[in-house]
Amino acid sequence: MAQMTPASSAPAALDPCGALETLFAPRSVAVIGASENPEKWGYWLASGALAGRDRRSVHLVNRRGGGLRGVPFLPSLAEIPGPAEHVVVAVPPGQVRRIVVEGLAAGARCFTVITSGGATADEERELAGLITGHGARLLGPNCMGVVDTRGELLLSWGDFPTGGVGLVSQSGNLALEIGRLLSRAGQGFSRFVSLGNQRDIDAADAVEALITHEPTHIIAAYIEDFRDGRRLLRALTAARQAGKPVLLLTVGRSEASGRAAASHTGALVSARATVAAACGEAGALLLESAGELVDTALALLSPALPAGPRVAVAGDSGGQGALAADALAVRGLTVPPLPPMVSDALAAHLPPGAVPANPVDLAGAGESDLGNYARVAGALLLGGGTDAVVLTGYFGDYATANPAQTERECAVAREMADAVRISGRPLVVHTMARDTPALTVLRKHGIPVHEHIEHASAALANALRWTKLASRPAVELPDPAGDVVLDGGYEATRALLRAYGLAFPEAAFVTTADEAARSARRIGYPLVLKAMGLAHKTEAGGVALDLREEGALRTAFARMRSATGAAGYAVESMTRPPHAVELIAGVRRDPAFGPVAMAGIGGVTAELLGDTALALAPLTHDAARALLLSLRHAPLLTGWRGAPAIDLDAATAALTALVRAAVEHPELSELEVNPLLVHPGGAVALDAHGVLGT
User: Fold this and answer.
1) What is the pTM of this model?
2) Which residue of 380, 459, 577, 693 pairs with 679 in a disulfide if CB–CB is 3.0 to 4.6 A?
3) At 280, is the pLDDT very low, low, confident or very high (cuts 50, 70, 90)?
4) Has residue 657 got a pLDDT over 80?
5) Could you tell me if residue 473 is left (phi over 0), alpha (psi between -120 and 50 degrees) or otherwise beta?
């Protein structure tokens, strides 16, 4: 926590990858564009800055004069006594550069530029270069500011409750939504960084700063532009290794947010799928909404985390218990039978005739004695046989109808919290009550409380995901490189992949029917004829299979030339090994994350089935094997309904070779084999396609 100390008269250079101390803990702050008008951004920035003036010197600048809360506005930065380490800029766009120049002269080491609009991308980059060239840093432009709640640094608009969540966001309003949801649940922020246009300080910088920030226990992020994805990936991995879960939101689930591509790989590897693969590599949790993010954060901030998927459910009615069990099952959790000792312990607290099974139907036990909630929850938490407990129903609402029960209901809540602490197992409460004293007690002790059972189930499942990710070893991903140029055509792509060890059928490349016939006599029938230069040959009539004699070959050639107009053709040996499975394997170069490997069920149904798995390239042998076995149709590879298993080692070797070729040839934005025919005797590529980057 920064203390008031004499400031240096000259700016000190900042390490561009450092902890950004002058962003979060400056010794002095200057707000340029301060205002007395609550309708202006300058008012809220000035008010927030003044809230921390016991910790740092605060200067308010407005050339028109005025003042706020007894602090007069200075006419310019030049009038500030001593350096202003952190300068917050909220002036019209045309004045920003002048303010930056004045700030640098005044010793500024960090600029937070709230101003949006009026500047081109080139002008913003030039501004960032001016700032970083003087050893300072830039947050923004077009950002909502920065907050450190423990350090009483409030350089933004809005309410930011104090808590254990550090938020990095490209959306200001989303941050406000997350803040309100956290506040309702008795939680809040440690730090908040609004990234804006990321001309200097980016998401990776902000995440790195949160990793070393002791009050931050959870890192949340909303990111649209990933910039250097591999650098961000390393930051996310470092957070996981430090024991700090990263909860990530992004866009890209809709078809409109993707882009069309010339190959199957382009259609199957979406932007969001790439981010999901990156999160899988780093051990971050990719979530879908602000609500899910907050629910998951609450679960991860609770006193205990689930060690496995087994959940005990106790409800005020059979219906609520059954629905809870279904909601948990949807999320991959189980509601198993209880051990006999636990069932016996429960029976002592339930009405006669109630069955002490999982889910547990309290059958009025809570109404007859509120203490039974704690007794049942305690029996389930302490008895063993399950990894977590969900209490669903009415608890927390008794005092609403009868205020005389307030003290007793709160005492029961404390007893349940004690059982969680003693057992080391999590308790999640779903209730129809809202913001009652008993729920406040639960939240104070870190027990998550939810209004919807599906939210409780999702949060518990995400907490289990994190416990599995937290112990996983880190995988080092080298940055790809290479300098060989290809033309992307089938013949050259085929030759490239053969050089990396992929097997292809014997083939010849021809331009006329006579050449095709001569090549066929050398290769031998049956044959395949393919038109060159087509990304989707089958749909365009560019593939003819199982040609068994010259007449059929010439007929197919004439028909194909008429349909496609192709100038070149491939004549290949027809390969039909028994018990074969068609796979698709590809690599697409993402602008932020670099090469992304994809494996899936292939052939003409690749896009229809959509059974694919992604990972950031390059791939080790073990990673490639795991990728293949993660497919929904993986049983086809390991032996389905009595069929022999394919040669998984050969399939894995083919996938790793393809990925290595793509990594070492960055001039290819996409590289694909479809189908890759895998069978008990090996693996053979039947078609290949490359796309040159632009």
Assistant:
1) 0.82
2) 577
3) confident
4) yes
5) beta
Residue indicated by tokens 């046989």: 385
Structure tokens given for 496: 């490239």
Alpha helices in 5-78 (DSSP H): 21-24, 41-50
- Contact status, residue 693 vs residue 589, Cβ threshold 8 Å: yes
β partners of residue 193:
146, 168
- Write down the pLDDT at residue 12: 36
How does residue 281 score in pLDDT terms, banded at 50, 70 and 90? confident
Domains in the chain with CATH codes: 21-143 (3.40.50.720), 147-300 (3.40.50.261), 311-470 (3.40.50.261), 506-573 (3.30.1490.20), 581-692 (3.30.470.20)
CB 559 within 8 A of CB 586: no
How many helices and strands, by DSSP H and E, does the chain display? 25, 29
Q: Which residue has the tokens 């809570």?
A: 366
Handedness of CA 344, 346, 350, 356 (dihedral sign): negative
pLDDT in tens, 325-384: 999 999 999 999 999 999 999 999 999 988 899 999 999 999 999 999 999 999 999 998
**How far is 529 from 544, CA to CA, in rounded Å?**
5
**Degrees to nearest 5, angle at CA 177 with 171 and 180:** 145
d(CA 273, CA 180): 29
Q: Is the dihedral of CA 510, 514, 518, 521 positive or negative?
A: positive
SS3 551: helix
